[in-house]
Amino acid sequence: MSVLVYTENWDGKFKKATWELISYGKAIAEQLGVPVFALTIGDVADDQLNELGKYGAEKVYHVKGEKVSKFVAASYTHAISEVAKQVGAKVVMFDHNFTGRSLAPRLAVRLDAGTVSGVVALPSSYEPFVVKRSVYSGKAFVEMQIDSEVKILSLMPNSYKVSENPIPISIEAIDLDIADELLKAVPVRVEKIEGKIPLTEAEIIVSAGRGMKASDNWGMIEELASILGAGLACSRPVSDEGWRGHDEHVGQTGKLVHPNLYFAIGISGAIQHLAGVNSSKVMVAINNDVEAPFFEAAHYGIVGDAFEIVPKLIEAVKEFKAAQ
Amino acid sequence: MKVLLAVSHVPDTTSKIRFVNKDSEFDKTDIQYIISPFDELALTRLLQIKEQIGGMHITAVTVGGADVDPTIRKALAIGADDAVRVDAEPTDALFVARQIAEVFKNGEFDFVMTGKESIDFTGNQVGEMVAEFLNIPSVASAASLELNGNIATIIREIDGGKEVIETPMPFVTSGQKGIAKEPRIPNMRGIMMARKKPLNVVPAVEQAAHTKVVKFTMPESRGACKMIDADNPAELIRLLHEEAKVL
After folding, report:
1. Which residues contact B2 (CB under 8 A, 6 or more apart)?
2. Percent of chain B at pLDDT above 90?
3. Half-sphere exposure (CA, 13 Å, Cβ side) for A13?
4. How far apart are CA B72 and CA B35, in angstroms?
5. Best interface-test mutation with B: which of A300, A314, A320 has the largest number of B CBs within 10 A?
6. Are the beta carbons of B236 and A10 separated by less than 8 Å?
7. How many whole angstroms separate alpha carbon B71 and alpha carbon B10?
8. Which residues, 6+ apart, have CB-to-CB distance to B67 below 8 Å?
């Protein structure tokens, strides 16, 4: 019996979200009295795999080869399912990112398991097994009970603290036969945006709205995000106007985000926008309209002209960073 | 070509959220229900494709009691050709996905489309589960869908970029922002026609739910917004560092 953590890699590297997930898995495994195993698919060097031991993984199952060189939901599900059965996984966990959202539900069907996506804390109870997630656009939380023998979770990034728990780790290469039947929806092209922090995992997000008046004015927003190491986002009218790409739209019909810190610059704070950002730990609103609804939701606010405030804010952040 | 579009019945975004029965159930009193916006975007994209290539039949499917009929009629008013309602309380995603998979099996459909998530539970689960029940390919978080004969080209958003995926039919895809720009709004003719379009009610197949709600809780209230002088953003940075501890 074990807890099995699917550790996704990005061009052979793990990220902070991976360490969060292993740390979370380790805490659950301790409660269940079982070891934590990791599973990774694709080319990853052994020294990177060994890093997983730092957070408590006893063993990593490494599936590689031509057939798994590209992400295909059906074939990856098959691989994870085979390993989960082999190691008697009681709990299988994923990051709640684009990959986890594809794999966790498919695996739930495969293993006839209950699954809860986007969990934000350790289980509040193990017998029965109860986990917490956000619902109704961040307006409430729900505690969900999973009754099946195998339980599948996806963990919201930024919701569990990384904790080191070093143990020696062993690596086991797994050779799997994957039927061509499972390799139908294959990526023919992958386009990566370099240097941009994905919103799903960003710890800080700088978001701007219609108050910026035109796409040409985004230079200062980009600069602020860059010096903060933040992800860039926007409100719906901005992406609808084509000032920024749809991938940056946060809100009810865009992305739901959950950073530690969210800057809303020139965003009035319509309920549909707040629905996507409500789960942020701390929100800062900068708006020239003191009546903007965002000030009701925000923790900190500045009333004034963004075109004057943002450059000053950039200077303040630079000074802060220099003093650190 | 026959397409199965799964739609969910959700409270409008502006709804005041309350719970009853010791906080274990959502209070439906005075709640305005809508089609989940991502399902509407998916339907909009299908209608655009239908207008381009012709010969497409769109069946909207949902799982619920008779109270969801107005929602599925709205899908008909926007442009779906007919509808199926699986007559059962949607207990969990696994249960719902199984029902949709059964409707697919009974209808000679070419592919399944849905929104990436319902806006109430935002689970991102049903589409992918349907695919696994049917043992067919799936592409989640589709930001674009084009059809070329029997092949679909789908752009899927990934963390830090996008993938262009080609898949043969049948498949399941779930649409997100970008799949269509604005959802279509039903016009008067559509609303009139929707009343005459078939809405078939079918019984559910047996499928155990493996998850259930224990209780709902409300987030801690956040207190008043602390206002900072516009001439002193350095004070904001200090507070974010020392007080909020997020910098």
Report:
1. B56, B57, B59, B107, B108, B109, B110
2. 94
3. 3
4. 8
5. A300
6. no
7. 9
8. B9
Domains of chain A: 2-182 (3.40.50.620), 204-323 (3.40.50.1220)
For residue range A71-110, what is the model confidence (pLDDT) as tens digits? 999 999 999 999 999 999 999 999 999 999 999 999 999 9
**Residue B80, helix vs strand vs coil:** coil
The pair of structure tokens assigned to A236 is 């719906």
Complex ipTM: 0.96
Checking if the pLDDT of B165 tops 80, the result is yes
Contact B247 A261 (CB under 8 A): yes
The shortest C-alpha distance from B198 to chain A (Å) reads: 30
Please tell me which residue of chain A has the smallest CA distance to B226: A300
DSSP β-ladder status, A129-135 and A125-126: antiparallel
- Contacts of residue A148 in chain B, CB cutoff 8 Å? 210
Query: What is the arithmetic mean of pLDDT over A236-254?
Result: 94
Q: Compute the average pLDDT of residues B66-91.
A: 97
Name residue B182's amino acid: E
Return the structure tokens found at A63.
Answer: 């599936």
Domains and CATH numbers, chain B: 2-213 (3.40.50.620)
